[in-house]
Specification:
Length: about 170
């Protein structure tokens, strides 16, 4: 990856008991001081339900921020904006256990869609200060993220290679 950028990839066969079996693959690109881009892929010869679930810590507020986005914020207004490329987004009430024996109310942002062979959900996770709301546009395999001080474009091709370029022309390839 480019200096400071980190790409991690992995897969698991925890859905091997499904008929037919499915494999979940995840690639995560970290662009320092900017964002994380997560690509989840389910590979199977048949359709299976497919969800990307993002759990909020207890005490965070969760707001819908468009058709496929939500924002998690703490009491100071600092937050994390989560936007998905596809699927139907919902916010579910749930609970978290920060220590053994404790259950505290929390929420989950869920991007859900029926899976077809090679089905993909790309999610952008963008930190935001109080009052900030990133603008995130998904166009095919291109993601454009705009904040007041910067713009970042990320391209993800079919081989999970990531090519990114920001407004200053800095380019990275992984």
């Amino acid at each position: 990856t480019s200096p400071g950028w980190t790409l991690s990839e992995g897969e698991h066969d925890g859905y091997a008991d499904l008929t037919p079996p499915a494999t979940h693959r995840r690639a995560i690109l970290f662009v320092p001081q900017r964002c994380w881009i997560v690509r989840d892929t389910v590979a199977s010869s048949a359709s299976h339900p497919f969800e990307a679930r993002w759990h909020a810590a207890p005490g965070l507020s969760v707001e819908r921020a468009g058709e496929r986005a939500c924002t998690l914020r703490d009491a100071s207004g600092t937050g994390l904006h989560i936007a998905a490329s596809s699927g139907e987004l919902s916010v579910e009430e749930s609970w978290s256990s920060p220590v053994f024996g404790a259950r505290l109310p929390s929420a989950i942002c869920v991007s859900a869609m029926p899976a077809e062979e090679g089905n993909v959900i790309v999610t952008a996770l963008v930190p935001a200060g109080p009052g900030e709301q990133p603008v995130i546009n998904f166009q095919g395999d291109r993601i454009r993220i705009s904040m007041p001080a910067w713009t970042q474009e990320v391209f993800i091709d079919g081989d999970l290679r990531v090519v990114a370029e920001d407004a200053s022309g800095r380019t990275g390839v992984s």
